[in-house]
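Methods: example folding runs. The two proteins below were folded one after another, and each record is reproduced exactly as written to the output file, sequence line first and structure-token line second.
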Amino acid sequence: MPAAPRSPADSVWRLDERTLFVGDLVNSGMHAYLTDGYASEGLTHLRQLEQRILDRSALYIGQDEPGGTELIAAQSRYVSTFVAAVEKSLTLPESERAGGVRVAARHRLGPLTSPRGRTSVTAA
């Protein structure tokens, strides 16, 4: 199975019918890697993954503890919300853009951590 958003060449590995290694396609309460600009591809791959796997599957992710299929919907919401916040910030004066993303994301995403364990977005 193809994966993203880190790269259009990443893969998902199916270990058995209900066990998948999804790498960095899915995160658990952690900021997603979106720097390379594959957010829309990542959302497409998340939808495809959700359609192709069985309920109650175990997802082994690249940066955190394993979880269930609920992580896919959470990751989709996160990426969609973050991209919308960035797009909205582009309408602001340049000096206000970073703050605009933080405020918009804070209201929708709640607390998240970076891969190094630091809080990156906190609830207001």
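Second run, written to the same file directly after the first:
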Amino acid sequence: MITTALSRLVLVALLVLPSLALAQGTTNPNPTSTKPLFSSINDIVSKACDVVNVVFTGAIIITIIFVLLAGIKYITNGADPGKIAEAHKQLMWAAIGFAVALVARTMPFIIATVLGDPSLADPC
């Protein structure tokens, strides 16, 4: 009984609270003079560089962890072919993940090239 009442209360809160947030007034008195999200190609490439740098750093850290775990599996496998195959698979997927991270690292350069800004030879 308490669980159904609590779930109903949560459901009502999830349905009502967004409408209350939408009911508040705007803080911009002149909504037609809003600043654009990106004012130039350099802004787009700069944001892309920031995102890619964070993702690339995280991917490198995760790749190192997976390579270490695969190495530990190789060392402690006890000559079991199943464990060796599992460690080999894990090492292969770590390498694939690293390759995807490297491709993602080149994306800002590709974006700058496609957008046609010759001043962005090395955007990051």
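Comment on the second run: Helices lie at 2-23, 41-75, 81-105, 107-115.
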